[in-house]
Hints:
mainly beta; 4 helices; Thaumatin
Amino acid sequence: MLWRQNVSSLPSGFALEYWFTYEKNGPLYDTPHFTYTVGSGGGGGGGGGGAGTFPITFQNNTRGVYAGSQIYITVLGQVRPGQWSYMKADGTMAHISHLDPTAPGHLTKGGVNYPNMSFTLTQVGGSVPSPTSIRGGRIYVSLGSPMYIPVSPDDQGWGGPDLRNPNDPNTDVYYDWYEYTYVHGQVAFGGNTTQVDQFGFPMTAHLTQASSGYDNTQGITLTRAQVMSRYAASVGEAFKPLQSTHRIIAPRSSNLFLAGGPQANYLQAYIDQAWSYYATHPFKLTRLGETFSGQVSGTTLTFTKNGTGSFRREGRHRRGAAASGRGRRAGRRRRRRRSARAAGSRGPGCRARRGGRPLLRGPRRRRRPRPAPPGRRSGRRTWRGRPRPCVPARRR
């Protein structure tokens, strides 16, 4: 079926943005946004080219260990809130689909089929155009192998690597990732090399902006061998098992420091000491312009924020909860957060689980400085700690 809409009397240089809504097995979906500048002779498919886009260039610094044909890029994000897409080699964004694992060119590992959502540096000449709109974007870089990422049956989620699952198909893959969000004309670019869950290999991000003269590079400049050797030489015995051939896992992402793990109570002695101290001394913490003050009574820490409100921390962190920032919190704030999660209002940055496996991988709390042009704010949504299971918000 061919559909045509004629638009006339547009001045030269006018930037036109358009998209379509289509039906697929019942549900309605929006296509990626396309752009066309009148008089330019071309446009952008879901952000590839046209007004508001910019090149993302990948530089192979493996010193000949991996050729461009062995370095895989996997880009996932929400072109529209609630709708996950992946980038194709031509720079356009395509909706994820549960049918892709059986499509021609699909991937297979361990007898399981996966969609082929990766491309190599050789295929794209080392550069791809950024979509004009992408939220919760994640760029996986993997060496010697593509990423094996399943898609949920309803096409609403995807499963990223699970560092706590020894049978995850990406366990023996060298990979790391970069996170970013950008919406042309609405959300300024914001990105980071993350690595708060694991270290796979060093990455740097170089951001430039011609209009402001901004030019900044962030990331790890040491070689992988240097990082690995320095880690092994500087940590205690409890943290040495976190290092393996393929990566270094953060304690919060390892089973070793969770409940039931051999290091579940690693911080317990220190926590007990601090808890006992604040039972007889006032507690006061000032950070980011806010002051929290209170005192421990029995098994409860009661405190105020900037002298107002009443908050409680009941019980002490145990069974490795401190390693991941987990614990019980009571009071008005806790009830409010619970109701927000139940309503599925945490937005596109949330992460759902289906069958015990994470499906939506969205942005996480920023842990390191990220390059951003001066005077520009990042529109990335960040959540406290690791996103908990929730219902992905859908656009109504």
